[in-house]
Amino acid sequence: MLSWLSRTASSSIGKKVLMALTGLCLIGFLVVHLLGNLSFYADADGAAFDHYAETLDSNPLLPIAEIGLLVLFVAHIALALRVTAQNRDARKKGYAVRTDHGARTPGSATMMLTGLVILVFLVVHLAHFRLQKAEGVSMAGLVRHELGKPLGAGVYVVGMIALAMHVSHAFQSALQTLGINHPKYTPLARKFSLVLGVVLGLGFATFPLYVFFLGGNA
Amino acid sequence: MSAHGSSDSINLTLHVWRQSGPEDKGGFEVRRLNGVSTHMSFLEMLDVMNEQLVAEGREPVAFDHDCREGICGMCSLVINGQVHGPIPEITTCQLHMRHFKDGDSIYIEPFRAGAFPVLRDLVVDRSAFDRIIAAGGYVSVATGNPQDANALPIPKRNADLAMDAAACIGCGGCVAACPNAAAMLFTSAKVSQMALLPQGQPERDRRVLAMVQQMDAEGFGNCTNEFECMAACPKGIDVSNIARMNREYLRASMCSAEGA
Ligand code: HEM
Ligand code: FES
């Protein structure tokens, strides 16, 4: 009945469109996540950040949002693994000498690698702040505790470098995949993609750097 | 300094891929080639090498070529890791030896993609492209005699874009240069040249669905928008064609009755 839909979704273009859509939703989540986290800097004792965390937590719709987020990640990663495996098979035998023609970027050439680093980061991140979350525990205190450790801060900074590189290619790539290409806007979108990657990466990286080097705001 | 004492001739060390057939493992053969005139084309240089091989009673190196003026799309080769060599927007047959220096080592490999199996030495089978075209890359109505120039108004911009897409000579360099061995630039150029013109409209949805399906069936990779194809393309085909094909494909899949 819906064979046309599954045919579309499993085609080369269809898979990339689904990656683009899930990726763009994840970028949207990251923007909101970063804006929310900025409340960490609002006061010295972390009360604003704790209040933000509690408000989120007490929202009955939070579990639904979390499931949505999980679906986005799982779909994006499953498609990424499938697409990357197919792409490897498509070449069969590689070149003895390989010189790029100059169009690849550090971001575009490392999407699977940066994606996997983000995945590792994600596991650590959820272990820190999703699994240790509990009634009466200060979220700001938890952040200061985990990001004050050298390993904790290190994992966050490396994860955010990977994120910056991933998004710097991803945003404009997703537009191209969706067929959104225009002589007036595409050159801007390419630049914006780089800016977006750097802003998200740097923005999130300020938290481990601030906590680790300046001891946080307590 | 070259062996002939003239800057018009250079000595080279060639590392040429040799493979006796599709099943053979293949490997590089290293050959010195002295006194190569810098006025030669790359393919003429290979001709000279082959004359020497024949004189030695050995099999010449098989490589594809036909027009030798950059219009037929037959020549191929990956030269020192670059499709059609180091100069942008030319084919291998248009590459001249003046771009190489005395004493250079040159690695010469066939286009590499699972969908382009090596037949022999540097010759690969690119008939996967023919099958993509046969799936829908044509207009089936007989167009008859040329009509009056202004009978069929076409915006200048569309005419230009269609002409640019039609510049594709189907050499397969995009596949060879793509990190994923994807055939998106070729297929999208062929989809675009017809999607942009009135004659292409009646079969527009059917065409893009069939051509993409055939492209996938041939085992080409998925596009990750690295744009190496465009940088390697001897005709400078633009990746905006790929965006157009993605658009056409989504429109035909999701909004047309085709393939229901
Ligand atoms: C918050 C995290 C992430 C965001 C915001 C994100 C975003 C994106 C976007 C927008 C694209 C472009 C899709 C397209 O052009 O069609 C993309 C591509 C890709 N992503 Fe992610 N992604 C994330 C996490 C991951 C993870 C965890 C992995 C792997 C385990 C991954 C692997 C890939 C790969 C391999 C590509 C393909 C490269 C390409 O097509 O351009 N990503 N990502
Ligand atoms: S031989 Fe015809 S394009 Fe090179």
Number of helices of chain A: 8
Any idea of the CATH class of the largest domain in chain B? Mainly Alpha
Biggest contact: A-B, 43 and 53 residues
Helix content of chain B: 25-40%
**Bound ligand species:** protoporphyrin IX containing FE, FE2/S2 (inorganic) cluster
Class by alpha and beta content of chain B: alpha+beta
The first-to-last residue Cα distance of chain B is 69 Å
Mean pLDDT of chain B: 95
Task: Characterize the biggest β-sheet of chain A.
Answer: none
Instruction: Please name the CATH architecture of the largest domain in chain B.
Output: Orthogonal Bundle
- Give the CATH superfamily of the largest domain in chain B: Alpha-helical ferredoxin
Number of helical regions of chain B: 8
Shape label of chain B: elongated
Which blocks of ≥5 consecutive residues of chain B have pLDDT under 50? 1-5
Beta content of chain A comes to under 5%
Strand content of chain B is 5-15%
Q: Outline the low-pLDDT stretches of chain A.
A: none
Query: How many structurally independent domains of chain B?
Result: 2
| Rg calculated over all Cα atoms of chain B | 21 Å
**What's the alpha carbon Rg of chain A, rounded to whole Å?**
20 Å
Adjacency order of strands in the biggest sheet of chain B: 2-1-5-3-4
